Amino acid sequence: MSNDNTDIMNKNLQHYCPGCGHRIIHRLLADAINELGIRERIVLLAPVGCAVLLYNYFDCDIVECAHGRAPAVATGIKRFRPETIVISYQGDGDLASIGMAETIHTANRGENITVIFVNNAVYGMTGGQYAPTSLPDQVTTTTPYGDCYKNYGMPIRVCELLKDFDKVKYLERCAVNSSENVKATKEAIMTALRNQIDGKGYSLVEVISMCPVGWRMNAIEACKYIDNKMIAFFPLGRVK
Questions:
Q1: Tell me: the pLDDT tens digits for 15-40?
Q2: Which sequence spans correspond to the domains of the chain?
Q3: CB burial class (10 A; 0-12, 13-18, 19+) of residue 224?
Q4: What's 45's DSSP letter?
Q5: Residues with Cβ < 8 Å from 75, sequence gap 6 or more?
Q6: CATH architecture of structural domain 22-238
Q7: Residue of 22, 130, 161, 235 with fewest CB within 10 Å of its CB?
């Protein structure tokens, strides 16, 4: 994982909390871009949420989007400049809450973009509140008694929600809590980017990611929490 002048990632220190999965996902995305040789074609869309400062770490064209609106921005860029490789990087609050309408309609249209969807089941940036992907019994700052299901319903499975849209090309759910899962996530990102390069249509990679601070646990416990809790509701593998 070099940081020479061919690497799309720079040497800036990242602001993420200890044990956060964003660092790993950033590195995997950067490696995929480097290996595919598409750095000069990339337009990366930064979200509202923990990765809001993503533009500090990638040396490429980056657009900061309003909360949830990255798919709409991606649509405009890709249609105006179809030769670009457009990547929307979004968390669960950004993509599955305020941006759900944009997500659904962009996928239904089959826009030729790549979406990296980071699912850590809480609003990490603002203190660990309940999110659309929170587990039924999950304790968060806004559900301190673990009553997510009672008040808010079951977690939204985004990949399963989108799979029946005819123009969606590729959906895969991965995780970054183990070396094996990290390897699979890298391959999924590569596949999603190749689909866009080949003009095949909409691709989304959902990445189950650790949020130790938001989950009120240490980094090791957070990795185990994904295996023991999250994967039961968000099974890994290719959905479409």
A1: 999 999 999 999 999 999 999 999 99
A2: 22-238
A3: middle
A4: E
A5: 106, 109, 111, 113
A6: 3-Layer(aba) Sandwich (3.40)
A7: 235
